[in-house]
Amino acid sequence: MRVVQPRHQSTAFLVVGGPTVVIDVAGLRLVTDPTFDGPGDYGALLKTEGPAIDPAEVADADAVLVSHADHADNLDASGRDFALAAPLIVTNPGSARALGGAARGLSPWEGVDVGRGVRVTAVPATHGPADGELDARGWVNCEVTGFVIEAGRERIYVSGDNTSMAHVGRIRDRFGSFDHAVVHAGRATVPGKFSGRPLSLSSERASAAAQLLEAPHVVVVHQTGWAHFVDGPGATIRAFRDAGILNVLDMAPHGRWSSAAR
Ligand SMILES: [Zn+2]
Asked: Ligand 1 centre and the CA of 42: distance in Å?
């Protein structure tokens, strides 16, 4: 039996692996895009690393944020079980219908109070190139949402699988600057989809997003643990160093808490 991770009162982040991050904020515990399976072959996708912690360690989560329920690298089998056991799932409308249970589907700019004065707002995300082929429901690749978490005056951006800097600009315009940004930036590519063009931000674009959002603390995720990522930690360090903002990049290893003072 694993010990539950101690809960932080001030904002803290723990990267589990892939897109999965535990965010303690205002005494609440949120988990984003839960993935807790071991390495394995998912057909189109190959998982190469298991999670840094056991899901039982954070099973006290108050809410789970799911950017999209369509892809195994954002919601694997044990991650789905984890989400469905949580008191609240916040996601996009299509994924809420697919997940059922406690899932609450939010359209872009729609928000929900999740307790203790914390508000989670859905923000736009596009899961591929702007001119990419649309699915049956009219989304590039599939319906995806990002999130903005607000706790008092503190703001956290969680990108979800997004390629669009235009969306990041709109989010900056709407909310102002951010204290923390969690950015999916593996430059994911899948052969045969959009001619191999990226399905998520590259390291370069992640550093540009960090500058746009003026975020003094950036957690870059979803760039290791699966075979379909092109950019990894080396590319990220280069990109942030090239932009002159290496100081904002969170270097905490997976499974370790980090908390950046505002
Ligand atoms: Zn995806």
From this structure: 13
CA 233 – ligand 1 centroid, Å:
20
Q: What is the pLDDT of residues 79-93, one digit of tens each?
A: 999 999 999 999 999
Cα of 18 vs centre of ligand 1, distance in Å, is 11
Span from the CA of 71 to the centroid of ligand 1 (angstroms) = 5
- Asked whether residue 105 is assigned to any structural domain, the reply reads yes
Residues 51 and 127: their CA atoms lie apart, in Å, by: 24
68 C-alpha vs ligand 1 centroid, how far in Å?
A: 7
Q: Which domain holds residue 242?
A: 12-255
- pLDDT by residue (tens digit) across 132-187? 999 999 999 999 999 999 999 999 999 999 999 999 999 999 999 999 999 999 89
User: What CATH number does residue 52 fall under?
Assistant: 3.60.15.10
Within 13 Å and on the Cβ side, how many CA atoms surround 23? 30
Return phi, psi of residue 166, to 5°: -60, -40
What are the φ and ψ backbone dihedral angles of 220, each rounded to 5 degrees? Answer: -95, 125
The answer to whether position 262 is within a domain reads no
Ligand 1 center to 27 CA (angstroms)? 29
Q: Is residue 6 part of a domain?
A: no
Domains held by the chain: number = 1
